């Protein structure tokens, strides 16, 4: 299933991928609005589908993160295998987002 | 904005009031402990060997969603299990909501006897009783905790 979605993402145009990302993100936000647990957010099917998009989702996530600090940290970790968040910033959502945005710019992502 | 009755059948106009704008910087678990600048969560990234890189969680509490682990987390900032949510002068209690062994939500009692809940990623509300936010989403109150009487308002905030 995940590999099918990843293959789909690789074949999609940038425009279609961005549209699908936006739809999945909107559904994820709507369904998890009242959740206080990260696990509930990262287990959501829409979130998992975005993770399965792979590396092409990274600039889309970073753009979204720049607009509004949100719980994309697990997705970014699952896609990249990295975590640039300093230990002292654990739980500080805006600083966690800023760390990933800075990482994205250092890596040359454009959004 | 009204809360969906399918999730919160016991929240009705008249028994709660919105008190803030939506804010994703903190969750109900932090809010119940008196914090509004941090997201308290035991989640760790899959395969991560360094749990500290994720969200804030008190160091001595097990990193899982069990009620017992949340109790340890709140004990680390001065709370102790108590019998019920009755109002005691100068004491702001915490109610932990659970679905079986896993916690789902936490609310904090106010000096006026009402309760305050951070509703997920959304707003803070003030509600009349702990039972107002029970239902399919947050389930039932499983545990009440209270701070030491002498440090009723400061124990959590200093944690």
List keywords for this structure.
heterodimer; A: about 110 residues; mainly alpha; about 0% strand; B: about 160 residues; alpha+beta; 7-stranded antiparallel sheet; 7 strands; disordered C terminus
Model description:
The complex is a heterodimer of chains A (111) and B (159). With 111 residues, chain A is mainly α. Chain A is 67% helix and 0% strand. Chain A contains seven helices and no strands. Chain A has helices at 2-11, 14-32, 38-42, 45-52, 58-67, 73-80, 93-106. Chain B is of the alpha+beta class and 159 residues long. In chain B, strand 4 and strand 5 form a beta hairpin. Chain B starts with 15 loop residues before the first strand and ends with a helix. Residues 150-159 of chain B have low confidence and may be disordered.
Look at the helices and sheets of chain A and give the structural class. Answer: mainly alpha
What is the first-to-last residue Cα distance of chain A?
28 Å
Strand content of chain B: 15-25%
Number of helices of chain A: 7
The main pleated sheet of chain B reads as:
7 strands, antiparallel
Order of helices and strands of chain B: EHHEEEEEEH
Identify low-pLDDT runs of chain A: none
Helix share, percent of chain B: 10-25%
Question: How many separate domains make up the residues of chain A?
Answer: 1
- Distance between the first and last residues' Cα of chain B: 33 Å
Rg of chain B, Å, rounded: 15 Å
| Whole-number mean pLDDT of chain A | 92
Strand tally of chain B:
7
Brief sketch in words of this structure:
The complex is a heterodimer of chains A (111) and B (159). Chain A is mostly helical and 111 residues long.
Secondary-structure map:
The complex is a heterodimer of chains A (111) and B (159).
Chain A: H1 2-11, H2 14-32, H3 38-42, H4 45-52, H5 58-67, H6 73-80, H7 93-106
Helix pairs in contact in A: 2-4, 4-6, 5-7
Chain B: E1 16-18, H1 28-32, H2 67-75, E2 80-82, E3 94-99, E4 102-109, E5 115-118, E6 124-127, E7 140-146, H3 155-158
Antiparallel strand pairs in B: 1-6, 2-7, 3-4, 3-7, 4-5, 5-6
């Amino acid at each position: 299933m995940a590999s099918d979605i990843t293959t789909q993402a690789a074949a999609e145009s940038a425009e279609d991928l961005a549209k699908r990302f936006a739809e999945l993100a909107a559904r994820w936000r709507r369904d998890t609005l009242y959740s206080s647990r990260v696990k509930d957010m990262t287990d959501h099917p829409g979130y998992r589908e975005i993770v399965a998009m792979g590396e092409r989702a990274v600039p889309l996530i970073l753009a979204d993160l720049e607009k509004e600090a949100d719980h994309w940290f697990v997705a970014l970790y699952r896609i990249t295998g990295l975590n640039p968040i300093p230990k002292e910033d654990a739980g500080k959502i805006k600083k966690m987002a800023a760390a990933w945005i800075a990482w994205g710019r250092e890596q040359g992502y454009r959004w | 904005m009204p809360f969906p009755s399918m999730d919160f059948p016991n929240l009705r106009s008249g028994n709660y009031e919105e008190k803030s704008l939506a804010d994703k910087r903190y969750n109900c678990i932090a809010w119940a402990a008196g914090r509004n600048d941090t997201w308290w969560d035991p989640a760790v990234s899959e395969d991560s060997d360094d749990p500290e890189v994720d969200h804030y969680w008190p160091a001595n509490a097990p990193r899982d969603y069990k009620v017992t682990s949340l109790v340890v987390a709140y004990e680390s900032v001065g709370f102790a299990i108590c019998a019920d949510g009755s109002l005691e002068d100068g004491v702001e209690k915490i109610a932990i909501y659970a679905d079986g062994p896993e916690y789902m939500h936490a609310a904090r009692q106010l000096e006026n006897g009402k309760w305050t809940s951070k509703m997920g990623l959304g707003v803070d509300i003030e509600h009349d009783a702990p039972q107002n936010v029970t239902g399919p989403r947050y389930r039932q109150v499983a545990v009440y905790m209270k701070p030491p009487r002498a440090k009723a308002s400061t124990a959590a905030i200093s944690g």
